[in-house]
């Protein structure tokens, strides 16, 4: 503890239980652990000092950005240190000529677009973008509504300065897009805090499209809307975003955003085109026609920026608004091949009926990235367990349809038990080889991502034993 | 040797010196080494058997595709086995609904586009695309003329089945774009054969653009053409390709492709727009206007597909055509920030004058990816050495301008000495951690990429000594 205080100043090391309670969960509230200590370094040098102190004392650590993650990736460890990066929030450089921004990990996602606007913007846009940090986006390879066209965080990270678990500092990648050597910045993105801490991040930003047009088309059922999605994509249209909301989500969002969407529609499809004005004008007519042919009961076109904002508020409010129609909910995140949308949605309906629970569906339809929201009342005995079980069945149904256990929220603690459903033993062993190469002592976010705690047994050194097994080590710091 | 024959059949194991001579170099003819044996497996299972046999006997190996690489990445090892993958040339699956192709590593680059055309195509297009293999493209993270808009190989590889140096087989990634777990398929792309052998590759293909239009604009100097490039990009135009050729390259290519381009132009800028017809028509006029304002002496627009082909033949002939104006040449490959094109081109001119050699410049101007061709006559004593030295000075000039030692040809043997100019010790150590995690014995393409032979000393096991130091081991196979 003394080492942490020396590194960051006494006032930036929290050890009081009530202060630590603020950090016991990330956005996945179903899990909570109070850490031994939380430390808030104020510079990359202080991060290095903290990581070195942890290494020296064999204490595991977890890095945390804004704590808005949805897979428990920033869940603390009881005997460990939580390294909170929210004080590292400087935008270091804006280089529009080369379409690059260099920033610290605690900068919020939305602050990047603000710093490069109005001429440029940063495409990956999680719904939590007002609060979520770029460092967290890097850890989870975050997506968002615009990823169908623009790609995920990994497509925008060019370079990283990282503090590795051994306390060394490496520069991975740089301002250029494709450097020689191994693509370690690529592997670092999405590594969920298990390979080190990014202290400086170089991002690519792109020119703001000349024109943006947004419509919402209403359908009788999500399956019908899913068909429209397939036809839009098959026609070669690449929308900036294609988002779907089902009846339950629309109901919830209306209570917060009040768009006045038709109360009899079974699904709403929000489609946005962006690009050169000449292209958009022509493509937009085509898009409206496809929706009509696919059976849309009504197509509303946003007439101005204000109406576009209302459309997007409906979509982005869906998670928080769910609280208005259900005391608790569990956000699921999985991916299916776009071509199997209708079939999987029906399967989810059937599973929900069997469990006697309601499931709202909001999703990035272009990517086939579902976000089923399992509604439950935690005050009713057994209902939380039933909800978790249902969420698990939904994940497995997606995997069986050729999909993935997570689209953009990460594995964290929440999904690690499903990893063997997606990966064979040699594939998991390959992951483990990488992890042990960078963290032989198992100090960086242990207990996350991998299905069972594994030791880097083959690798010798002073940290052979798993630190979680070494009782009381934290006391000695 | 017996193990190899058992694995692949006697006729697929070459040991005769004259047969092995065919494999002594890849496309970088300045280096040549005859391997102990070359083996041509006919299936993934045979690749596994070969890698396991090499592991068992501690024999190093090098994987080779078509041998068209330009950094000596597939240069054999005298005491090692060359694993030639050209028999693995099946396209396993074409799934246009999900925009995916699954193929073996020996399939040529151009065969992918042929298999998915005319509705789709595979964007990364090295000039050698008629012969180069997808496996080689994966190893080198190959680029091409269309990478400015479309990105490199790494942006199109979704999944890999790989044989790791320990003989295990892992599935990295898959058909979906963003899977949970570490992005190992991302790190495998561009790893230059040092992490294993890809035996099955899942690629993303994209819809063929509705419309393509191509022009060539002539300028007094490459610097002036470079200015036009900056202005095109600054205007928000994203061409499918922006390629530049200087006077010497035009002269060479005219002898092969005979386009009849003006004989007094100092530089030709080949610009291609692709996309929706409505967009292209409007953008093309804008593009022509930008070239005129930037001082172009003439703009020629390809009137039809035949003329477009002539334009592209001029560009793609530049390397082979160089043989018509110089007995030998050395292809350099480096990257500079686009904004510093003019300055670096002048520096290259000055360096060439000092060395008394001619340097032709052909390059992917949008990416700032230069391909200076250093011309020399190997029959004149000392000239080959002077050419190599000049090539080295050009690389360093690019690094000093904030660039990179390689854009798309890889490090191989040719550039490894420059790695410390780009990377600090902790960065190289991070690379080495990864390499040792997957190849602790140092059997997979040793002596490539990293600046000095390093041993995975910290890792114990039967392969502690570097195999190149273990004389005669190959004899025992």
UniProtKB/TrEMBL annotation, chains A, B:
Its EC number is 1.1.3.15. Residues 31-208 form the FAD-binding PCMH-type domain. The keyword Phosphoprotein does not apply. One of its GO terms (molecular function) is (S)-2-hydroxy-acid oxidase activity. The keyword Hydrolase does not apply. Its cofactor is FAD. Keywords: FAD, Flavoprotein, Oxidoreductase. SUPFAM superfamilies: FAD-binding/transporter-associated domain-like, FAD-linked oxidases, C-terminal domain. InterPro entries: FAD-bd_oxidored_4_C, FAD-bd_PCMH, FAD-bd_PCMH-like_sf, FAD-bd_PCMH_sub2, FAD-linked_Oxase-like_C, FAD-linked_OxidoTrans_Type4, Oxid_FAD_bind_N, Vanillyl_alc_oxidase_C-sub2. This is Glycolate oxidase. It comes from Conexibacter arvalis.
